[in-house]
User: Which sequence fits this backbone?
């Protein structure tokens, strides 16, 4: 009888553990779904996102994944999001500084001789660029007549 | 064409892990030859409507996002093994349009791009019983593929054997070929994909398959 009770308790314990593990897998899948959405938002907002990797390698499937594998995917997604967020923050800082540079170039073009800032440098699409150059070529260069020329449109 | 889509089945062990998972199927007539003019026109019109912007926003749309999430949850990388709608978006951008291949593929392309739902096709005469989703058992393999499937691989199966990997290769001899006379369209539903979208996708593909065929009274 004690043996039977012991066996019964073990089976119950296993069932409880299995139930807990299933709940853990459900929770991990929920977290993966949320992180995938967040990564997708970054992908869209940063497009074309040159130099940014959005890759999250898979564990191999299609199959039912265990807790450890789901945790690995969740953690890799979270790490990737942290990397992308860091890169975008750095890039945002540089772009803001470049916008300020354009303002200063326009205000004092002679202080920024030959400096060129493109749309890409301020995080925008298109081929426009701001270029500090002398008016009337070499004459303007000798006379110190500098201006910022805004070029728009991509070459055909 | 049948009057209603078959609901399919999901093995209990798989259903308990993925409550939203399902497979619906619909039988249509084959064979699948060259697409008739109106279908090719529709594909061109779809190409004109679907731009790079759509492709970028895809993963933020609920249905394509739901498939991406499911791919991650079953160990697939959706950036390498693309979801059906993302694969078509990728091909569209790469080739400059949705290229017409044959009547069946064009019907699937139209339905997948319009709804985002994953649909594929099998030769109805090579299937035994209803299609469903289950995990593979020990020693099972996919016909035409060397070696055994790792146990627990998620497969689409008829009542006898696996006929394809879930979102993967189709078993040899179970796919549609030029002489196929009856085709099963099978749509895989995952959590987050409304049932009505699955129905719409199946009926849209079936309707496109019906274009250019004589109507039987």
Assistant:
């Amino acid at each position: 009888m004690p043996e039977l009770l012991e066996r019964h308790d073990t089976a119950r314990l296993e069932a409880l553990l299995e139930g807990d593990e299933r709940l853990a897998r459900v929770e991990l899948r929920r977290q993966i779904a949320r992180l995938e959405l967040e990564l997708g938002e970054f992908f869209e907002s940063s497009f074309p996102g040159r130099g940014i990797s959005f890759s999250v390698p898979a564990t191999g499937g299609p199959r039912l994944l265990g807790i450890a594998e789901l945790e690995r995917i969740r953690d890799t997604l979270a790490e990737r999001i942290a990397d992308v967020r860091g890169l975008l923050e750095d890039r945002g800082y540089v772009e803001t500084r470049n916008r300020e540079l354009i303002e200063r170039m326009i205000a004092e073009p002679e202080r920024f001789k030959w400096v060129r800032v493109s749309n890409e440098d301020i995080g925008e699409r298109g081929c426009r660029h701001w270029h500090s150059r002398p008016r009337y070529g070499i004459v303007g260069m000798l006379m110190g007549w500098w201006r910022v020329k805004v070029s728009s449109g991509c070459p055909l | 064409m049948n009057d209603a889509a078959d609901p399919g089945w999901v093995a209990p062990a798989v259903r308990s892990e993925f409550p939203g998972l399902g497979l619906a199927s619909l039988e249509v007539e084959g064979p699948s030859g060259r697409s008739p003019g109106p279908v090719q026109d529709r594909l061109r019109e779809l190409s004109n409507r679907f731009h790079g912007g759509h492709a970028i926003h895809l993963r933020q749309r609920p249905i394509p996002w739901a498939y991406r999430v499911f791919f991650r949850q079953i160990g697939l990388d959706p950036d390498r093994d693309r979801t059906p709608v993302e694969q078509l978006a990728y091909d569209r951008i790469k080739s400059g349009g949705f290229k017409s291949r044959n009547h069946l593929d064009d019907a699937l392309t139209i339905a997948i791009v319009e709804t985002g739902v994953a649909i594929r096709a099998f030769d109805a005469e090579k299937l035994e019983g209803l299609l469903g989703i289950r995990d593979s058992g020990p020693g099972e393999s996919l016909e035409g593929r060397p070696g055994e499937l790792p146990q627990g691989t998620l497969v689409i199966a008829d009542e006898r054997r696996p006929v394809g990997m879930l979102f993967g290769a189709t078993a040899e001899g179970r796919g549609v070929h030029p002489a196929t006379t009856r085709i099963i369209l099978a749509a895989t539903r995952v959590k987050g994909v409304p049932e009505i979208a699955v129905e719409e996708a199946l009926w849209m593909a079936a309707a496109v398959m019906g274009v250019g065929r004589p109507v039987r009274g």
